[in-house]
Please model this.
Amino acid sequence: MLALSWVAAFVACLGYGVGSVLQSVGARQTEEATGLGGVARILRQLPYLVGLGLDGLAFLANAVALQRLPLFLVQSVLVGSVGVTALVAALRGQRLGRRDWGSLVVLVAGLVLLCVTADPRPAAPLALAGQRVLLAATVVPVAVGLVGLRLRARPAAVVLAAAAGLAWTGVALASRAFSAEHLTWSAVAHPLVWTVVVQGVLGTVFFALALQRGDVTRVTAVTFVLELLVPSLLGLVLFGDGVLPGLGPLAGLGFVLAVGGTVSLVRFAE
Model:
């Protein structure tokens, strides 16, 4: 089961990275959307649908990875999808300079350090009250997304990408909490299930709208940096995620390198 979790984490990384580029291609084939009608037009584009399918595969792989691996590790591996996105975009004609390749090396080094220092274990159980708080927190990405829809061009893309990142933060936390639950057919009414469904849909919609307004690498970087920082910190508190004894400083260095490499790749959008 542990080996499967490791493989699943890297499958999720590839799926999200390639899927982001395809979604960008599909989103840019339509005029700027300002409401649900615009989202519907985006969802009818074949490249976007294929990208969404890869996202679905990546999501399932991510859920498998979170059964045994801590949030800070799995989310950091997902951040690696920004590097995959940059590489695929480069193959489509966009240029990567020396600094960009250096950023990719830094990102990979950070991921390696996190992989060798993480302490794989199931999550500590989350109380029912905590599960309900996760569901209620849906109002946060909704509020941020509504602000983004009132803006234009690059600021709108950044704010909408942040809304997507916050929504998918809720999905990550709920998915990690699942590893401590024994769900049955009655799970349709479970707060964690509704958190994954509602915030997953919100994240998909806000991400689609952000892609129409900004560069794929910038949008992806903003989204996944938030999706890395927030759940990684909360995972330490809520689920008992941690590192192997004596390796805390190395894990901290790996985390900084992973974040730094991702942030530096935002320059590729220029």
In short: The CA atoms of residues 17 and 210 lie 16 Å apart.
